Amino acid sequence: MRFGLFLPPFGDFADPLRVVELAGSAEEAGWDGLFLWDHLISRPGLQVADPWTTMAAIATATTTLRFGALVTPLARRRPWTLARQMATLDRLSGGRLIAGVGLGDDGWGEFSAFGEERAPTKRGKILDEALEVLKGLLSGQPYEHRGEHFSLDAPAFLPRPVQEPLPIWAACRWPNSAPLARAATLQGCFPIFQVSDPPPPPDPGDIAALRRRLQELGAGSDYDIVVRCAFSLEEPATVRTIVANLTEAGVTWMLEAFAPDGPPTAVVEEIVRSGPPRT
Hints:
Blueprint: E1 2-7, H1 16-29, E2 33-36, H2 51-61, E3 66-69, E4 72-73, H3 79-92, E5 99-102, H4 120-138, E6 143-146, E7 151-154, E8 168-173, H5 177-184, E9 188-192, H6 204-216, E10 224-229, H7 236-249, E11 253-257, H8 265-274
Parallel strand pairs: 1-2, 1-11, 2-3, 4-5, 5-8, 8-9, 9-10, 10-11
Antiparallel strand pairs: 6-7
């Protein structure tokens, strides 16, 4: 089991210097990863930072911490631009980037505010094709593609990422079948359960069922299952039981989840300094 932090770069954490300082504290305290939400806007009046620029700063300020965006909605990105960013960031960090991809949501008007596609079914088709293009470009080989949404005939994208393959995790809403099939072709799954905030630990039975379904769809034995929960709110003895049960069910990463409206910044920083449950 690895332990990470799942942070919206909103409000006080829209200041990239503050996130970099938090990343340094996380590495020193023994956390394995720091993952940022990837949004353009949030609720009105709330500051929002670009996660990719912030991650570049994290890469240069840390040496062992894994990091990534959970998740980047590919339907609003040009996959060739993202491929360049991912390869560059992986090399900048010495091979510590983990990419997260997903459908995205229009809850804050993040698609409709900019005239982007709102229909989830159509965005899903764009996502699948963009993912195919992204993987082709990250291969470091010349890549040609003719599809419904993208058409390209590109030379080899060099330099390649340090990692081969660069890990990509896909978000999915359990138990929807299409996102699971997409996730099974990648290196990890970030399941989203219909729960309130702060999110409770997922049911180990759901995780075991998720892993079985992913394996049926072709996921390998070294596949990552990544869950979010507010385990800092639990008693230490309870956390130990939660970790043991989720490990047995197949979880490989547990992320301490923070919401845009809480807890206060000082509390987040104290949780980070206290270190993950194993410490």
